């Protein structure tokens, strides 16, 4: 019955009730996880609302508040942990029509939350600027979805992750009888970065931009993953090389990269790079020092015009692995900035090909760190958590990608997020189940560790 009333708020075209639409727009990439897949498969919204203005978002929230209907916000649905899956049905609030670029200066871009990062990057580059950081899903992913569900990506080796000053301001609507419009900046943003939309709906974002660079993409290949990692580290640490991507992957991961596999050396571990045009000689020196061979390169003229190396980096690496072998899955790990080689050795000694190394060098709070999305062969839930326990036992941090709760996934500032949840969402209607699920309830859903 409420569906009918909602049509008065957003119009017939702003309300999608068909089975297929509800199914499609209630899902994200949760199926990356063999743990989450069976648990989230059947979840779907009762209706998808696609507002076309901030005023409509506020009206939808007020309506949902009055009627105690859960609201789960959606960007493009490319998140990996079921962040955008409505656990308790209700409304999925699809932000895709809030896609206006409001202001671009040399220093920042102010946009509505539903703007796709790919479209924004294209526009910025046409104007001699570019994004600082973006996920490998940039063609689809929205600015709001990245801020509320992502962490870092291409560019993070220079600019850090979302918590490193890469969000300047957000407009947040609260879930109340009369939704408030908060303009949030500085340390207050910590409550909203990677919040899964649990404590507010972000309608506008201001993010920093930087001058455009001509990027060259290069694959460097090695006999073993150790050399690939050492080379990657030396490039990551070399401040004279401007860069956006430094991604070492262990063979056979490159064999999963179907669109470019013919251009890659059989049997070689590889490093995927985006560095400034003109850094070829420096790269060659680093490669020579580590027994690396320069391979497939994509000149700047083809940047973003063809399949690029970032289409195989970050969580795209996992996507190609899964396409090749559905029994593979992944973890999100943080290796020690200095001890990572010994940690990698311990993991390889212990697990062999059950764990394949994939690092993403990035900056975090200014320090170059080897973040990692290792590929893991999935055999059983218990075994997965044995592997996680071993990583932790040798000092490798894990952000568990096999849980949908913020408490257990371990990103972001929980205390700040909880305080904002209490203030902004008194009826706990925003994306229920993702923040503050009592442990017992989570366990009953089979999502315990
Ligand atoms: P969605 O998945 O739609 O939403 C993400 C979360 O944010 C959900 O909880 C949703 O409820 C909430 N949300 C969305 N919009 C709003 C809003 N306006 N207000 C409040 N809450 C909102 N992530 C990275 O960080 N780096 C990567 O490099 C990366 N690579 C990936 C590669 C692949 C192949 C895949 C499948 C995923 C990858 N991800 C990566 C995860 C994901 O793509 C990113 O987090 C992406 O930025 C999410 O954007 P989205 O628009 O699809 O958000």
TrEMBL record:
One of its GO terms (molecular function) is D-lactate dehydrogenase (NAD+) activity. This is FAD-binding oxidoreductase. PROSITE patterns: FAD_PCMH. It comes from the Bacteria. One of its GO terms (biological process) is lactate catabolic process. Residues 41-212 form the FAD-binding PCMH-type domain. The keyword Oxidoreductase applies. Keywords: FAD, Flavoprotein, Oxidoreductase. InterPro entries: FAD-bd_PCMH, FAD-bd_PCMH-like_sf, FAD-bd_PCMH_sub2, FAD-linked_Oxase-like_C, Oxid_FAD_bind_N. Gene3D superfamilies: 3.30.465.10. It holds the Pfam family FAD_binding_4. The lineage of its organism: Bacteria, Bacillati, Bacillota, Bacilli, Bacillales.
């Amino acid at each position: 019955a409420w569906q009918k009333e909602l049509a008065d708020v957003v119009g017939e075209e702003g309300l999608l009730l068909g089975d297929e639409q509800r199914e499609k727009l209630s899902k994200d990439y949760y199926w990356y996880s063999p743990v989450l897949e069976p648990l989230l498969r059947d979840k779907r919204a009762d209706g998808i609302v696609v507002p076309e203005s901030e005023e409509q978002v506020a009206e939808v929230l007020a309506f949902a508040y009055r009627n105690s209907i859960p609201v789960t916000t959606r960007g493009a649905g490319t998140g990996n942990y079921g962040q955008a899956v409505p656990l308790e049905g209700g409304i999925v609030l699809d932000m895709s029509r809030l896609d206006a670029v409001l202001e671009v200066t040399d220093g920042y871009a102010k946009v509505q939350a539903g703007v796709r990062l790919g479209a924004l990057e294209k526009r910025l580059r046409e104007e001699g600027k570019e994004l600082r950081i973006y996920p490998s899903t940039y063609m689809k992913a929205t600015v709001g979805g990245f801020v509320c569900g992502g962490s870092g990506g291409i560019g993070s080796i220079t600019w850090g992750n979302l918590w490193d000053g890469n969000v300047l301001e957000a407009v947040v609507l609260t879930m109340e009888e009369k939704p408030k419009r908060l303009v949030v900046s500085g340390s207050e943003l910590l409550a909203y970065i990677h919040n899964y939309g649990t404590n507010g709906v972000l309608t506008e974002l201001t993010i920093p931009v930087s001058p455009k660079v001509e990027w060259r993409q290069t694959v460097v290949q090695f006999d073993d993953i150790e050399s690939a990692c050492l080379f990657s580290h030396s490039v990551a640490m070399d401040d004279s090389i401007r860069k956006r991507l430094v991604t070492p992957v262990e063979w056979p991961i490159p064999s999963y990269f179907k669109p470019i596999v013919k251009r890659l050396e059989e049997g070689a571990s590889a490093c995927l790079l985006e560095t400034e045009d003109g850094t070829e000689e420096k790269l060659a020196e680093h490669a020579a020092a580590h027994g690396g061979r320069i391979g497939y390169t994509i000149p700047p003229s083809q940047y973003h015009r063809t399949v690029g190396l970032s289409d195989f980096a970050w969580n795209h690496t996992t996507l190609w692995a899964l396409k090749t072998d559905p029994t593979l899955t992944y973890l999100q790990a943080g290796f020690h900035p200095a001890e990572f080689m010994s940690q990698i050795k311990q993991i390889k000694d212990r697990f062999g090909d059950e764990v394949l190394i994939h690092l993403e060098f990035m900056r975090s709070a200014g320090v170059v760190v080897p973040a990692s999305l290792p590929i893991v062969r999935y055999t059983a839930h218990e075994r997965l958590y044995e592997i996680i326990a071993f990583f932790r036992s040798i000092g490798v941090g894990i952000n568990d990608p096999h849980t949908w709760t913020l408490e257990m996934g371990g990103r972001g500032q929980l205390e700040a997020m909880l305080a904002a949840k209490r203030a902004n969402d008194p009826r706990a209607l925003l994306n229920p189940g993702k923040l503050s699920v009592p442990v017992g309830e989570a366990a009953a859903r089979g999502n315990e560790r």
